[in-house]
Predict the 3D structure of the following.
Amino acid sequence: MSTVFTSNSIPALSPMFRFQWEEVQQCHVILYPEGMVKLSGSAGEIMKRVDGNTRIEDIVSALEQQFGQSDLSADVNKFLEVAHENNWICFNE
């Protein structure tokens, strides 16, 4: 299943989930009533910027600046597609 969004789409955390740093796990997690999803470091960095106000292209730009990388859009989009398919995020357009 392919998610349709553009670089101008604005991802937001879905209301039934909570994103936070979990000290015991030493990673960012997505919490929901039935459990928890442990995120990789890069997924956590993306989710830290998913605030319901920031466009995908601005998230990519911030990550590229912070980590001195270029061409991160494919990786960010792939994670956002998985996050959307799992209902962790929705898009404010």
